[in-house]
Design brief:
mainly alpha; 4 helices
């Protein structure tokens, strides 16, 4: 007659690490190699994620000039992320996207600042109006003159 005491005992602590059908020999730990249901930890490149995030934020806010600051930070972190990606092999695509978006954010902010300075110079005589309507009329006159 077969009883439960005749069956070998299994250590419950190692059950989740053992692959089905690969019972270790007595006195040994779990078998090496891929195990069912266990994923290796995902490797991430933190500076690449930060560079991409700052690049997107900088590109979106570059119209109000502040995006250039995010772009500079994203560019620096993108360079760090590319160095890390060379070493670890992860995050290269995100790092490249972060660098490109950061450069676009810087260029957009510079363009916005130049346009803002040009507009301010062109409409300087209109800065002390009594009403918004006078300001609008003055600006229209400044641009229709030449």
């Amino acid at each position: 007659m077969h009883t439960r005491e005749d069956e070998p005992r299994t250590d419950v602590r190692t059950l989740d690490r053992q692959a089905p059908g690969h019972d270790p020999a007595p006195g040994q730990g779990p078998t090496p190699g891929p195990h069912h249901g266990v994923r290796p930890p995902a490797r991430r490149n933190g500076p690449a994620v930060a560079a991409l995030t700052l690049g997107v934020l900088g590109a979106v806010t570059s119209i109000v000039v502040v995006g250039g600051l995010f772009g500079v930070l994203g560019l620096v972190l993108g360079a760090v992320a590319l160095r890390t990606a060379r070493r670890t092999g992860t995050g290269r695509g995100m790092a490249n996207a972060g660098v490109v978006l950061s450069l676009l954010a810087i260029a957009g902010s510079v363009l916005a600042a130049v346009l803002l300075a040009w507009y301010a110079d062109r409409t300087q005589p209109c800065y002390r109006p009594d009403s918004f309507r006078q300001y609008r009329e003055c600006v229209q006159q400044q641009f229709h003159r030449g």
